[in-house]
Amino acid sequence: MRLLNYDIEDDSFYLFTCAELRAREAEFLDKSKIDRILKSGGPDEFTRALRDTVYAGYVNEIENSGSLEAVINSECKNAINLLAKRLKHEHLPAGELLFFEENLHNIKVVIKSIILDSDLEKLFIPLDYSYGELRNAAAAGSHENLSQSISGTLKFAVEIMKKQKNHQILEFEIEKFYLQEIYSSIKKINSRLIMDYLKHVIDILNIKNIYRSKYLKGDLDFSYFLHDNGFFPVEFMWKFKDESPDFFLKKLEQTDYADIVIKGAHALNSQSSFASFEKEEDLFYIDLFDPLKYTVSNVEIIFQFFLRKKMELKYLNIIFAGILYGIDIEEIKNKVEV
Question: Could you read off the pLDDT of 186-216 as tens digits, one per residue?
Fold first, then answer.
């Protein structure tokens, strides 16, 4: 991708937090540690390899549960708590952006539980709010303790679920509304880099949605899953509605998303997997935040640290699942950055 010259000012308010996070960068797993974990012959070897990392304290939980769920939830909660305590009030939306996928998932789970009149707490990701808090807020219409974006989306979802009986379209409409709420809140923090990150997220989400629709030969109208506020106008993406996937690919090869679509499309066609899209997307974001190495203390450094932490947790989960189910090591490597 083209590296832009972001004029990022340092903020003395974040000196202590950024110094702390710079020191904590030693926690990140380097290539040698990832390679050692990848070579694990089974779950026992995986946990032994983790004993030499920052995740050593979770080994017993992993061995008892056979899952990394507790590790991921705990680390994400730690991140959310630190962000809530250390960020200026006007910068709090940056923290919500980091976890927008989890929040969106939880809103969808709560709405589905109301529609089905079922307890779906097992599907819920307990981070900022509990399942009970969100479900009670949706049922009672009382949202005092929720963020503005989540509160607004929950109100919208409760209202629209009474009218929209197609559950797939309902989920797309909730997603569109929540992303619009996030966009509105991110505009207020005056960070060009974080706003550009969100615009790239929207572009790449639109690209993946179009590819998914064409690959699965879906007939859902583009208007349901194309999002506004990316770098590419929705009108531009609409032009590919009746075009072939190959034509779509050739046009995107001329953009900053070339690596994502070329490698992602190849993996999709050869392995029927969207994993390569996600891996290349992560690499794209790592490059996007590269200019921060020339700065000292700002909200962008904090955002970048926890974005990297989330990526690492995702890769560990992919590796563990692959080892657990005996997937070939080369196939696992194709899904993670090492």
Answer: 999 999 999 999 999 999 999 988 888 877 7
CB distance 260 to 280 below 8 Å? yes
- As a whole number, mean pLDDT of residues 165-180 equals 94
Ramachandran assignment for 85, one of left (phi > 0), alpha (psi -120 to 50 degrees), beta (any other): alpha
Sign for the pseudo-dihedral over CA of 189, 190, 191, 194: positive
Q: How far apart (Å, rounded) are the C-alpha atoms in residues 77 and 175?
A: 23
Segments in 39-118 forming alpha helices (H): 43-50, 59-65, 69-86, 92-98, 100-116
pLDDT for 243: 84
Task: Write out the two tokens for 161.
Answer: 């679920």
Q: Average pLDDT of 295-300?
A: 96
Distant-in-sequence, close-in-space partners of 85: CB < 8 Å, separation ≥ 6: none
CA distance 317 to 322: 8
Specify the higher pLDDT residue, 118 or 331: 118
Convert the pLDDT of each residue in 40-58 to its tens digit: 989 999 999 999 999 999 9
- The phi-psi region of residue 70 (left if phi > 0; otherwise alpha if psi is between -120 and 50; otherwise beta) is alpha
State the SS3 of 102-171: HHHHHHHHHHHHHHHCCCCHHHCCCCCCCHHHHHHHHHHCCCCCCCHHHHHHHHHHHHHCCCCCCHHHHH
Taking alpha carbons only, the member of 63, 67, 108 closest to residue 313 is 67
Both tokens of residue 92? 């709090």
DSSP secondary structure code for residue 39 in this structure: T
Give the C-alpha distances (Å, rounded to integers) separating 261 from 203, 206, 233, 289: 12, 12, 18, 20
Q: Is 192 helix (H, G, I), strand (E, B) or coil?
A: helix
- Distance from C-alpha of 174 to C-alpha of 224, rounded to nearest angstrom: 10
